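TICKET: design request
STATUS: open
ATTACHED STRUCTURE:
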C-alpha cells in the first residue's frame, strides 16, 4: 500500500509539472501573438501605399483575433463571436465601482510617485550614462516623426487604446489566469510587473536595464489594480490614462 501511495504521489507530481509546462507554453503563445500584432502595426510606419495598408490590416486582424481568443480563454471557452461582440458593449463591461476607482487612483498616484522618484535619482546620479528618456520611448518618438501624419495617428491610437487593452490582457488577465499563486499573491503581482518591464526594454544590454525600474513600477501598480478589483477593465483604464497623458506630452514636444 505504501508503494502504491508513493506511486500516486509521484504521478501527481509529474502531472503537475506537465500542466505547469503547458500553462507556460500557452501564455508564451499568447505573448508571441500579441508581440507579432504590435510589430506589424509599428512596422507599417516605415512603408507607404499598398504595403503599408497590408501591414496595417494584418496587424489589426491579428489584434482582433488575439483579443477574441484571449477573452475566450478567460471566459473558459464559452464565448461565441456574437456573444463576444455583445460583451464589448459598454453596458456589459464589468466596470470598477466608485470605491474601486478611488483605490485605482491611489495606486496610480503611488506608482507615478515611484516613477518620478526614479527619474530624479537618474537625473542626479546617472545623468552621464543615460539620455533622460527610455529607449522604448525614444524609439516611439522616432517612429512618430518618421511617417508623418499617418504614424502620429496610428501610433497614438495603438499607444493609447489598442496597446493597453492587449498588454493588460496578456500581462494581467492571461498571466493571472495561468499563474496566479493564491498563497502568495504578491509573487504573481511582482512577476507580472517584471515581465511587463522587460517587455518594454528597447534593448537588452546592461545599460538598458536602467530603463527597467519605471516600467516595473507602473507594471506592478497595474497588476495590483487588477488583483485588487479582479476586473481587467481596472488595469486597462489605468493603463489608458497613463499612456494617454504621456502621449499628449510626447506630441507636444514633437510638434514644437
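STATUS: resolved
RESOLUTION: sequence designed for all positions
ATTACHED SEQUENCE:
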Amino acid at each position: 500500500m505504501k508503494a502504491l501511495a508513493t506511486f500516486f504521489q509521484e504521478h501527481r507530481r509529474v502531472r503537475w509539472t506537465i500542466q505547469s509546462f503547458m500553462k507556460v507554453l500557452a501564455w508564451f503563445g499568447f505573448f508571441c501573438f500579441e508581440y507579432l500584432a504590435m510589430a506589424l502595426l509599428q512596422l507599417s510606419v516605415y512603408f507607404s501605399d499598398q504595403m503599408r495598408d497590408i501591414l496595417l490590416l494584418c496587424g489589426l486582424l491579428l489584434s482582433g483575433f488575439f483579443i477574441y481568443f484571449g477573452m475566450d480563454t478567460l471566459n473558459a471557452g464559452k464565448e461565441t463571436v456574437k456573444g463576444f461582440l455583445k460583451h464589448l458593449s459598454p453596458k456589459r463591461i464589468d466596470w470598477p465601482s466608485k470605491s474601486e476607482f478611488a483605490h485605482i487612483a491611489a495606486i496610480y498616484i503611488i506608482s507615478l510617485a515611484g516613477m518620478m522618484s526614479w527619474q530624479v535619482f537618474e537625473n542626479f546620479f546617472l545623468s552621464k550614462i543615460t539620455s533622460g528618456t527610455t529607449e522604448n520611448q525614444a524609439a516611439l518618438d522616432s517612429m512618430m516623426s518618421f511617417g508623418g501624419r499617418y504614424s502620429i495617428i496610428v501610433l497614438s491610437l495603438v499607444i493609447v487604446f489598442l496597446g493597453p487593452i492587449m498588454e493588460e490582457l496578456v500581462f494581467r488577465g492571461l498571466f493571472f489566469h495561468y499563474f496566479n499563486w493564491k498563497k502568495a499573491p504578491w509573487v504573481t503581482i511582482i512577476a507580472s510587473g517584471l515581465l511587463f518591464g522587460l517587455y518594454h526594454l528597447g534593448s537588452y544590454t546592461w545599460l538598458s536595464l536602467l530603463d527597467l525600474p519605471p516600467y516595473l513600477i507602473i507594471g506592478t501598480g497595474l497588476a495590483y489594480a487588477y488583483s485588487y478589483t479582479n476586473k481587467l477593465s481596472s488595469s486597462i483604464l489605468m493603463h489608458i490614462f497613463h499612456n494617454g497623458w504621456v502621449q499628449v506630452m510626447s506630441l507636444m514636444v514633437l510638434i514644437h
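CLOSING REMARK: The CA atoms of residues 7 and 45 lie 58 Å apart. The chain has nine helices and no strands.
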